[in-house]
Design goal:
This protein is mainly alpha-helical and 128 residues long. The chain has helices at 8-20, 25-31, 36-48, 52-94, and strands at 98-99, 104-105. A hairpin with a 4-residue loop joins β1 (98-99) and β2 (104-105). The longest helix has 43 residues, at 52-94. The two termini are 57 Å apart. Mean pLDDT is 76; it is low at 95-105.
Length: 128
């Protein structure tokens, strides 16, 4: 027999339903095919950790700050690594771009000729 796992959202939904008091804990457990003892344990855990709901804002801000710092560090590392490669390429390419009054036009580099006609695949002989 495999053990079923329940998402935290599902557990919270059932515990909140119990706390609302509209139905008995045993009724909610039976309707959801779970043990009443399991639901009691979920309720106890929920109430025990309720204070963390208000403490998380500080932790969330710290996590977001660390993530932003990490992204900034990664961007600086990429810039350091790729600047010697990309900057000369961009400098050479800038001469090819001209700005019209209302739009930017990027012409093809001089070594690439536009196609006079669309490419058509040659017909292949039928396979025997």
């Amino acid at each position: 027999m495999t053990r079923r796992t329940y998402t935290p959202e599902y557990k919270a939904k059932l515990v909140i339903e119990v706390l609302q008091g509209e139905k008995e804990l045993n009724t909610i457990a039976a309707e959801n095919s779970i043990s009443p003892n399991m639901l009691r344990n979920w309720k106890a855990e929920f109430l025990e950790n309720a204070g963390r709901a208000f403490d998380g804002s500080r932790q969330a801000k710290e996590a977001r700050r660390k993530e932003a710092d990490l992204k900034k560090t990664q961007a600086q590392m990429l810039k350091t690594i790729f600047s010697p490669i990309v900057i000369p390429f961009l400098a050479a390419d800038t001469a090819l771009i001209t700005l019209a009054a209302d739009e930017a036009i990027a012409p093809s580099p001089p070594h690439i000729k536009p196609l006079a006609a669309p490419l058509i695949a040659p017909s292949l002989p039928p396979v025997a």
